[in-house]
Amino acid sequence: MPEEARFRSYYGQPVLQEPAWEWPVPAYLFAGGVSAGSTLLAVGADLTGRPALRRAGRLGALVSLGAGTVFLVADLGRPERFLHMLRVAKPTSPMSVGTWFLVAYGPGVGVAAAAEVLPARWRLGRLLRWLARPAGLSSAVVAPGVAAYTAVLLSQTAVPAWHEAHPELPFVFTGSAAAASGGLGMVCVPTPEAGPARAFAVLGGVAELVSARVLDARLGLVREAYGTGRAGRLRHWAELLTAGGVLGAALGARRSRAVAVLSGAALLAGSALQRFAVFEAGVASTRDPKYVVVPQRERIARSRDEAGVVGQPPRQAE
Amino acid sequence: MTEHSLYGPLDDVAGEAGYDDHPPRMGFFTDTSVCIGCKACEVACKEWNGVPADDFDLLGMSFDNTGHLGANAWRHVAFVEQRAQDLGMPSFDRPGDGSGPESRTDFRWLMSSDVCKHCTHAGCLDVCPTGALFRTEFGTVVVQQDICNGCGYCVSGCPYGVIERREGDGRAQKCTLCYDRLRAGEEPACAKACPTDSIQFGEVDELRDRAAARVAALHERGEVGARLYGADPDDGVGGTGAFFLLMDEPEVYGLPPDPVVPTRDLPAMWKRAGLAAVAFAAAAAVAFAGGR
Description:
The structure holds 2 protein chains of 2 kinds.
Chain A lengths: L23 H25 L2 H24 L19 H24 L5 H33 L4 H4 L5 H20 L6 H24 L4 H5 L1 H23 L5 H31 L2 H18 L11
Helix pairs in contact in A: 1-2, 1-4, 1-6, 1-10, 2-3, 2-6, 3-4, 4-6, 6-7, 6-10, 7-9, 9-10
Chain B lengths: L12 H4 L9 E6 L8 H10 L25 E9 L23 E9 L7 H5 L5 E3 L5 E3 L9 H5 L6 E2 L6 E2 L5 H5 L5 H5 L5 E5 H17 L6 E3 L12 E5 L19 H24 L3
Parallel strand pairs in B: 1-10
Antiparallel strand pairs in B: 1-8, 2-3, 4-5, 6-7, 9-10
C-alpha cells in the first residue's frame, strides 16, 4: 500500500460530482464492443467463405447493438428525448461523435443480419442477400471506431480514473472488444470454422491484459481506485477470466467444442467485468477528494519547480 | 476553430462561440473576505430560479446545510472553521479595541459562496451531445431545459463538480447567471441580494481589475493568505467568468486547486483511440490471414 496521501479538503467532501451514469453505461461499453468485433468477424467470414461464422457474427452484431442501444436510451434522464442526440454533430463531444458513428454503423449491421434470417424465396430476402456484403463492409469501416471511441467517451471527463487512463484505455477497450466478440464466435460456431474467432480472441485478450498492466504501471495515485474496492475485485476476476479464456482459445479450443464454449464464455465474462471495473474505478475516484487534490497539488509543485519559484506558497492556517 | 478554441487564454469568448455583435463578458467576483455566511444568495437564487429547497438539515459541517453545488443548489455557502498556527501574544486589550489582523484570536471562520464558474473553456459545454448547453452572448454557459435529454455527460465533464442531473426531473441543472435577468438588464438574483457585496456582478474585465486591487489591499493589511481563484486567463480552463478571492487554499473550500478542462487532451485522446482502432482492424485481418 502506498503511503496515505496528505491533503486538505472541505470536511473530506468530494470535489467532483459522482457520475450520473449507472450500470447501463458499462453494459453498453461491453455490448458495443461485442457488436463491433462481431461485425469484423462476419465480414471476414463472408469474404473467406465461412457461412457459420458469418451468420453468428451478423446476428451477434445486431443483437448486441440492439441491446447496447437500449442501454444507452435507458440511462438518459429523459429517455423520450433520445433523438435530441441527432440535433447536432459536435467534434468536442465524444458522445456526439459516437452517436454519428452508430448512425453510420447500424444500418449495415441491420441489413446483413436481416439477410441471414429472411428466407431466400421472398423477394426481399433475395434483395437483402445481394445487399448483405456491401452493407457488412459499410459497417466494418465504422466498426473499429465504434469499438475505440468509448474510451475517449470516458476519458473526456474530469473523472480522475478515466481521464488519467486516456493513453491506454482505447487499447484496453478494443482488446476487450476483440476478446469478447472472438469469444462469442467460439461459443456459437463449430470449431473447424471458428479459427479466425479464436485468433481474434487471443490477440484481443492479450492486448487487453497487457494494456491494463501498462496502465497500472503508469498511473500515479489513481491506480488505487483501480486496485481497491469493487473496481479492484471486478478487475481481478476480469483478468483471471480473460487469461483463462485466452489459454483455452490458444490451446484447447481447436480440438474440443466444450473447451471452445467454456473459453468463449470466459472471454465474454472477462470483457464485461473489465468494462464494469473501469466504470467503477471512475466512480470511486470521484468519491474521494484525494484523487483530485493530491495530483493537482503535485502538478502545481512541479510547475513551480520548473518556473524556479523558491519557497512555499503562503499557508496561513492549518 | 482558432488556436485557443480548446484550451488556453481566449479574449473574446462569445465571439469564439459565433456571436458577431455581443455585449461584454459578464460574470461574478465573489470576495469571500467579506462574506458573512447569511445565505441570502442561496435563498434569492432559489426564489428567482425556482430551484427546489428540499432539505434543511445541518450536515455537521459548521453552518453548512447545503453541502455542495448541484442540481438543487446553484449557490452554496461554505463554512470553514480554522485554528491559526500562530496563537499570538497574550494581550490586555478589551475585545473589539482593535480592528486589524493584530486583534485576531486563534480562531477564524472562512465563509464563501460558491457558484458555477462559467469557464472560458467549459468542460460541460464541450461534451454536451445535444447542444442543450450553450454559450450565451454574455459569455456565460447555460442549459436549455427544452433540449437537455439528461445524458449526464456534463456531470462528469465539469472539473469543479458543479452541474448535476436533478432527481425526478432527469435534466442537468446549474447556475444560468440569471440569463433571463441579464437580458432584461438586471443583475443576477444572488448578487442583488448579497448584503455585503461579497458577490459582485459586472463586466469580467472590470471585475478582474477590481479583484487585483482588492488582493493588493488585503496583502498590504497583512492578510497574506488572500489570493484570487479563477481570475488567471492562463489557468487550466482559460480563466473563469465567475472567480473568487479566497483566504486560504482552494481545496479548503472544496474547490480543485488546479482544474483543467478535459478537452485540453482531446486531440491526444483521439490519436490514441485511432491507433487502437487501427490495431483492432489489423488484429481481425491477421486472424483471417492465419487461415486455420
